[in-house]
Amino acid sequence: MPLNKFKKSLINGFALASLLVAFYIGQSSQKETDEFSKSQVFRERQIDKVCKKNGNIAAYSQNHLIGYVSIGNSQGYGGPMKVLLLSDTIGNTMDIELIQNSETHAYIEKLKNKRYFEQYPNKKVNDKYLIRSDISVVSGATVSSNAIALASREAAWNIAKNKFSLPLPDVGIRWEIGKYELIVVLIFILALIATQLKYKKLRYIVLFSSCLVIGFLLNASISLSHIGRLCLAYIPDIRHHFVWWILVFGNLLAIAVMGKNVYCNSICPFHAGQIFLNKISGVNFKIHPGLSKHLIQTPKYLLWLSLILILISKNPTISSYEPFAMFFSLEGMGIQWYILPAALIGSLFISDFFCHYFCPVGASFRFLIEKRNKLKHLIRKHHE
């Protein structure tokens, strides 16, 4: 085996082994925690004792019955979500608290700033808890709004059914599919055509349509958190995350069948933004081939390091550094405030600057295409 090929195999083996170890550490560190002891709701209400009886959890303050507690679960944008709900003794919601989530911090802050959580107190425990019905949605944090509503419903209905024997409303099987979801389907179909036929004009039309709809209106770009969710098997319900499924699984299917990365080529809203900036400047510096050869490997190492952190923490958003969401919403945190201007300035002078040298999403899809092509080659060789 040639030395370079041996070194590459060694590095790939180390990367795979370290990811497996990180996954094992993350999964084995699951410890049962007292979900009530650190609750802000409990502190504010001075709840000092809970008693479990007949499937109900009663909450007391100085031996005085305050109400009943339940925990509800759902899938948010970043992964699993838990909501604690406290009801009074006659079946009204007193308060809710988000006690576990993997959402981007900016989304939760937006919910708090828009007073989203204040609409839950005084609701009946057997209400519908439906967004756009009896729960108002916060624009720009629709997925998080819906996930909290679903978790709150599960918690409230547990109390309604087990403690008060109340009838529960029929909310049916709701699909969150509206005009924007249908537009995303159309964008994806046109992107498939543009990529397969190499139709440049259609590609540009699709890219800038995606920039408007998927970027500015929905802020639903594929990010490292999507890759993290797949690795952790945090698969969201298609009924409430239709755009997520179209973009992620649609692109994975295109890679498997066509060997083409349709998303990065013809859909990515941030890619469209970089093209626009580079066209404005009219400048396209060429990095020295020797330096470019090393820089182009950077996304792989960033992807590997990010996945290590995600797998250990079991939090898909913990190491998300891409500036996509911040670019379209102007809301971000930490290192994103530095990466976004660097990426935009770089795009003025170097075509697809972030895509080539920093994007972990592109790196993950290129990795899958490489493995897919190798598998296809092996199958052909086997049948020859």
Automatic annotation (TrEMBL):
Coiled-coil segments on the chain, per record: none
UniProt keywords (A-Z) are: Membrane, Transmembrane, Transmembrane helix
Q: Which InterPro entries match?
A: 4Fe4S_Fe-S-bd, FMN-bd
Q: Which residue intervals define the domain FMN-binding in the entry?
A: 76-159
Q: What is the protein name stated in its UniProt record?
A: FMN-binding protein
What cellular component terms from Gene Ontology apply here?
A: membrane
Query: Is Membrane included in the keywords of this UniProt record?
Result: yes
Segments passing through the bilayer:
177-197, 204-222, 242-259, 301-318, 338-369
Give one GO molecular function term: FMN binding
